[in-house]
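Sample intake sheet
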Amino acid sequence: MSKLVCMGDCIIDLLPSAPKSLTYTAKAGGAPANVCAAVAKLGGEAYYLGKLSDDVFGKYLLDQLRKNNVNTAYTVVDGRYKTGLAAVDLYENGDRDFFFFRDNPADANLYPEEVDESIFEKDDVLHFCSVSLMESPTKHAHERALGYALKHGTLVSFDVNVRLNLWKDADRLRAAIDDFLPYVDFVKVTDDELGFVTGCCCEVQGVAALFDKAPRAKLVFVTKGEKGSAVYDRSLTSLTYPAVGKTVVDTTGAGDCFIGSIIYKLLRGEAALDINHIDEAMKFAARACAFVISRKGGAEAMPTLAETENFDER
């Protein structure tokens, strides 16, 4: 089976014990690391290509990656930097906001020369998000990795993952996203992110505009929380799916689980970047997400293959 390589932030999520509580528990987080865990716990081969601190949090993150079966052969540990933190504000309905503490963190300091060309192989998947596209060594490491991916036939997955409170202004974030969209083979956005990136209030028009920005992309996945999800191809043919599951405890990591589940099916050859060969993967991803939101945590909450296949939404 082909492998997944994830680049970007691997940080500590500080989860409150209850809504409005100031008592927190440290959990492994960061969207790319969550996607790694999602694929690895399902039984896929997943690597984290990124930098961790050697502080107490960095050691915890490295341990958690390995416990979740993520391969850390491409992970760099560097004691010159500290681990980034995200305090999670949890609401009664299970939704959440993030408040970031990132003062030149380790995950922003992966240097281009620390990216080895031999990592990238045909039919693998390279996955990244927009958090790491701020000006930093890691941004330029992404540029090098994406060049290698295109050279070697590695599929490129981009979860837009807008975090406005990390950027000085929205236009700079939008411009960074636009700069990287031409590299990608498929894109995952929320319905809100679609409007942010394209300026369109109509979903179909927004997807059309996104395809214009991403000329290589074959599919766009749109997640809509309790309204479910949709997938579009370049002809704007679409499939829509209802949300699965009735228990919502914490939505942290749900989107990461969704795209991780799609990637897992692609790596196994049980799906393809074609509207006619993605249906089962979409249904599988919906079940996996329902499992994640029924318990707390990001990477820790990702389901195994058995848990996903046996999930009972009742």
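Comment: Residues 207 and 220 are 7 Å apart (CA to CA). The longest strand covers residues 11-16.
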